[in-house]
User: Which sequence fits this backbone?
């Protein structure tokens, strides 16, 4: 009888699981159908306003974000390049009469914000209006909003204008109290990624490099704002020094905004500009929907002449990685595909990464070198950050373009192996012992201290990777290893400074890189093909159904993201640190402008 119930129970569970999978599949395909239907060409009504509402995440490439298939109705945010293209298209679209901006705390870095601003300033040459409004402006949100003809702020809102600063948490005291020894191995006196676990405050070298790049970017930030708002650079510095802009009325008195309005009042202004009655709805269309209203022009004659744009954004990780990260194996496969595709004549590598795994970086470096050996020009375009491992993969490029405020360099490596021996013994009561057939047979363990001999071996390995890194850069940049070492040692530079040091060739963007790639490949007409290919909702759900991505892990991550909100990025960073393997070529800190 027990056997009978066992088989009945097993069969019942099997049927339940099977029907659950079928239900999920049907749900998936139903959703896919509805989304496919919703993906049809959007209709733009006459006398419309293009609405820009910036999300916390602004990727380089649309769809290159790890969006959960369980987040029903959620869609990946529009990428920077498609956003700029949409603004440019709206400039000559007779149906679009102006732009309405809500830019509170947009995602992306300073270089990203600068590119959006450039597109908006260009849009204004059409004679069409731009109106900006928000309840609260961060500095980066205001940086974008400042391009508007009229900038409005909620009467009880605020506009933060306090300058650029850096705050780095240090964990050494906490680790000491827990009995955890970080055991750090690094090369380069400016390679400060491990300082939080080695020190209780910034080293003088780190303080110097942070002050330099913050100051340089702050000067450019003030200059750009001054040009748009007609406020002198000295006045802007005074506002920041005295923290004069705190309340909404302060922002108005200082000329940072043009008026204090509630949203209904701003909508009334928009109706006046559109010449519609106050009881009529405004024809507003979001940028994501607007992007579906037009198709990118495809030159069929140039089908055999293609330039691949490869978006390398996020942390560099071993293996395949996920959307929004640079998996060494996945990107190596992309480069091999490009290598074997005779219709692709050149490559633009768009890098927005603070680095990560040194091994994954080198795997991609090799494939990029093979592309060059095959006669396909490789041009690099740097975004907000292209440092450490991000610079490693940029180094082979024939030409490197950076934005003036790109953060780059950080040519250095480190290894971090925590020793939890004392913590496990004193706090938990667990000890470890080993039996070995050779001196190093037990390997490196986080549950015992590294011996001097083991430490020497690890340090030699880190130094070897650093020497390889220097050689890769020297080869790519046409410099001596000693010359690279002078500007390396883990030091971070701005794009402008990197230009003077020979680490980049020109100040420019992706379009400049495309023109350079076409010229290098001797092409006057070409098509653009983008990598990595965005996964459809169907593909993401099939990954779950096929067991490639566990639904429990995905749902758990969704819950954490929902509960932590803007703090999720710190959780994600902690997870990345936990998953570090081997030697790292990684930025010393996360850089954000608020």
Assistant:
């Amino acid at each position: 009888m027990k056997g009978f119930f066992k088989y009945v129970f097993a069969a019942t569970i099997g049927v339940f699981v099977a029907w659950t999978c079928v239900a999920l599949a049907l749900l998936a395909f139903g959703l896919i159908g509805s989304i496919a239907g919703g993906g049809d060409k959007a209709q733009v009504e006459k006398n419309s306003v293009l609405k820009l509402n910036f999300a916390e995440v602004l990727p380089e490439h649309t769809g290159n974000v790890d969006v959960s298939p369980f987040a029903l109705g959620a869609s990946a945010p529009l990428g920077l390049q498609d956003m700029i293209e949409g603004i440019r298209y709206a400039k000559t679209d007779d149906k679009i009469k102006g732009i309405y901006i809500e830019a509170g705390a947009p995602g992306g870095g300073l270089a990203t914000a600068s590119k959006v601003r450039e597109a908006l300033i260009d849009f204004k040459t059409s004679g069409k209006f731009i109106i900006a409004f928000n309840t609260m402006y961060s500095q980066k949100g205001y940086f974008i909003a400042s391009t508007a003809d009229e900038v409005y702020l909620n009467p009880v809102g605020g506009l933060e204008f306090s300058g650029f600063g850096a705050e780095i948490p240090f964990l050494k005291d906490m680790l000491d109290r827990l009995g955890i020894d970080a055991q750090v191995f690094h090369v380069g006196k400016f390679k400060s990624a491990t300082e939080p676990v080695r020190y209780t405050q910034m080293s003088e070298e780190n303080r110097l490099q942070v002050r330099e790049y913050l100051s340089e970017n702050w000067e450019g930030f003030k200059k750009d704002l001054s040009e748009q708002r007609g406020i002198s650079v000295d006045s802007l510095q005074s506002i920041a020094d005295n923290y004069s802009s705190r309340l909404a009325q302060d922002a108005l008195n200082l000329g940072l905004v043009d008026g204090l309005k509630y949203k209904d009042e701003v909508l009334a202004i928009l109706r006046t500009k559109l010449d519609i009655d106050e009881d009529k709805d405004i024809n507003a269309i979001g940028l994501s929907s607007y992007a579906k209203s037009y198709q990118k022009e495809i030159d069929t004659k140039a089908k055999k002449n293609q330039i691949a744009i490869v978006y390398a954004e996020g942390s560099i990780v071993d293996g395949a990685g996920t959307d929004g990260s640079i998996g060494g194996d996945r990107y190596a496969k992309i480069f091999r595909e490009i290598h074997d595709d005779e219709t692709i004549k050149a490559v633009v590598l768009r890098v927005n990464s603070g680095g990560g795994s040194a091994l994954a970086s080198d795997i991609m470096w090799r494939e990029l070198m093979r592309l060059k050996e095959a006669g396909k020009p490789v041009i690099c375009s740097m975004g907000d950050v292209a440092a450490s491992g991000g610079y490693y993969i940029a180094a082979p490029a024939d030409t490197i373009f950076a934005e003036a405020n790109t953060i780059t360099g950080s040519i250095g490596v480190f290894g971090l192996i925590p020793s939890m021996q004392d913590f496990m013994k004193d706090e938990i009561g667990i000890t470890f012992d080993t039996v070995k057939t050779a001196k190093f047979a037990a390997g490196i363990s986080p549950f015992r201290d590294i011996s001097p001999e083991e430490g020497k071996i690890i340090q030699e390995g880190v130094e070897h990777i650093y020497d390889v890194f220097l050689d890769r850069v020297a080869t790519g940049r046409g410099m001596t290893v000693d010359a690279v070492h002078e500007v390396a040692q883990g030091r971070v530079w701005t794009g402008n400074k990197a230009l003077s040091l020979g680490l980049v060739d020109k100040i420019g963007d992706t379009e400049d890189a495309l023109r350079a790639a076409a010229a290098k490949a001797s092409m006057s007409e070409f098509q653009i093909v983008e990598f990595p290919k965005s996964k459809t909702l169907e593909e993401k759900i099939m990954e779950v159904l096929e067991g490639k991505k566990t639904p429990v892990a995905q749902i758990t991550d969704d819950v954490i993201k929902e509960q932590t909100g803007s703090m999720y990025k710190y959780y994600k960073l902690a997870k990345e640190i936990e998953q570090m393997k081997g030697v790292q070529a990684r930025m010393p800190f996360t850089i954000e402008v608020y």
User: Anything to note?
Assistant: Residues 320 and 330 are 5 Å apart (CA to CA).
